[in-house]
């Protein structure tokens, strides 16, 4: 198969959602990466179907989780306040300025960024991008022989199906994300012990439980933090918190045996990082902040933050697997493996791209931030666009040569 093949008919802005003609591009995923790809595709004038996922997909996505972005330079409430303050010049607005200065922190969330991209698409690029809140269930490559009606010379298309419909496109971008593993907490409630992951959610939603040292590690400077985990990753994060931020950390293995190296064990000890193996029975936190974590047996640790370092529970890579794309980490179970990509975001299947948290480039550490998701998105759409334009140029050149002067 070859994405260079002229599978799509010439562009027709009057019928961007025509089902008879394959789209230039299908983007699957409605998070940061998918929204960035859909917006960029609209800006380039690519006929695009954007499958944003169902309510269930959205629930498990990181797009719903990140309430307060703190690491993206420029995405900050300080900018919003300064602009609003400027608008409120003059005596008439003095009370409004005072109210603004007293207003609590105005967090900018992943939801805000995604909503803004979707609004821009609807307002400015509706003729190019068709958004649908549907979950993609299956993806397959349909060769030209099995797909009558394609233009001559076409080798085939990607066909993506939901429960009720199916669509095709010359190129396909997957941006379906990942989900972190959560700690089981052995909490007692109304006399009954419930061993569940749900007990972490209130503190996680208030950003007292963190998941990303690159995004939020700096918030812990000089504070007391518990790293929840038992693998090498947890040990490395505890050491990094100590070395980088002077955070006084402690590692909670939560009933699991430690899996870190002897060197890491020696360093944890040397840095004075306490390691405890008992199960967690309580996360004591409120709107005002985290107070403490309590362990089985009654020991209680006063803390400002916890950082979960248990690795991934799922990479949503089913569609990539169905299409035969190579995954990373062969020693891990298939559902925990990232999708291998090159510098353009292309998988080992030509014309199939994977972007955002689900993707892994062999030449750099796994990057799971908002700005890296957006960068992957732009690179992938640049490649899709450059292939489409190459096709059009070839056709234009043929026409130019065939037309007598
Ligand atoms: C608690 C927390 C805090 C974070 N804080 C920051 C921060 O401050 N700064 C920062 O840079 N990064 C932060 N990150 C990381 C950042 O949130 C992610 O890197 C980013 O959101 C990843 O975007 P994504 O589009 O790859 O995935 P997601 O946002 O998870 O999006 C996946 C999308 O795919 C959709 N989907 C899934 N399956 C299907 C399907 N079959 N069909 C259709 N759609 C489907 C889902 O509905 C969802 O819309 C944080 C992460 C966490 C967990």
Characterise this structure:
By secondary structure, the chain is α/β, with parallel strands linked by helices. It folds into 2 domains: about 25-65 and about 110-180 and about 315-400, FAD/NAD(P)-binding domain, CATH 3.50.50; about 180-310, 3-Layer(bba) Sandwich (FAD/NAD(P)-binding domain). Helices cover about 30% and strands about 25% of the residues. The protein has 11 helices and 21 strands. Strands 1, 2, 3, 4, 5, 6 and 20 form a 7-stranded mixed β-sheet that branches. A 5-stranded parallel β-sheet has the order 10-17-11-12-13. Strands 14-15-16 form a 3-stranded antiparallel β-sheet, with no helix packed on it. Helix 9 (about 260-270) links the parallel strand 12 and strand 13 (about 275). Helix 1 (about 30-45) packs parallel to helix 5 (about 110-125). The protein is globular. The protein binds flavin-adenine dinucleotide (FAD). Flavin-adenine dinucleotide binds near residues 57, 356 and 373.
